[in-house]
Design a protein that fits this description.
Layout: E1 3-6, E2 9-12, E3 31-33, E4 41-42, E5 58-61, E6 69-76, E7 84-92, E8 98-99, E9 109-110, E10 129-139, H1 151-158, E11 162-173
Parallel strand pairs: 4-11
Antiparallel strand pairs: 1-2, 3-5, 5-8, 6-7, 6-10, 7-9, 10-11
Length: about 180
């Protein structure tokens, strides 16, 4: 153990380990975007319970070259009962480029939402303005999970596989 001497006081040197994601070998920063809304702007009603309740179009770019699969998680951290999970799609092919409006990628597996169903469940806040975070994860492997995996099950196995993350946040207030 190394010692640091500071003004006559001997203090053991402590090495702190900070949790971090694996370093992706990517020249650019991975991004997720939508042609339907910009970061921190209103999600159009079409993609919510006030409209058609379909998923918005999403585009992915600058995926790290070592990526084996992509994972998308969509949640509402402002929900009164705690974070509400609106959509999860895992084991998507890295070259997918995005998800079209009102669709699910053929290579992805959808997990169970807080609505108790698989598939996209759009914003539907009980009151006030809520944030909806669309987070894309580049992973160094496929996730071995059943098709009805919950967010907690997904999160319990994904952390050690994350190469890089990107997110876009939309906001919505339910029409009354």
């Amino acid at each position: 153990m190394a010692l640091i001497i500071l003004i006559g006081v001997i203090i053991p040197q402590v090495t702190l380990k900070i949790a971090s994601h694996k370093k992706a070998t990517n020249k650019y920063i991975m991004t997720i975007s939508s042609s339907a809304f910009r970061h921190n702007e209103i999600i159009p009603a079409r993609y919510t319970c006030d409209g058609s309740d379909i998923n918005p179009p999403l585009s992915f770019s600058d995926i790290p070259k070592d990526t084996k699969s992509l994972l998308l998680l969509v949640d509402d951290p402002d929900a009164p009962s705690g974070t509400w999970h609106h959509w999860s799609v895992y084991n998507m092919a890295p070259e997918i480029g995005g998800i079209d409006e009102n669709s699910k990628p053929a290579s992805g597996i959808e997990g169970l939402t807080s609505f108790g169903k698989m598939g996209y469940g759009g914003p539907c806040p009980p009151k006030g303005i809520h944030s909806y975070v669309f987070t894309l994860y580049a992973l160094d492997s496929m996730l071995e999970l059943p098709s009805n995996a919950t967010f907690n099950e997904i999160q319990s196995v994904m952390d050690i596989h994350i190469l890089e993350t990107a997110s876009i946040t939309g906001i919505y207030s339910k029409n009354r």
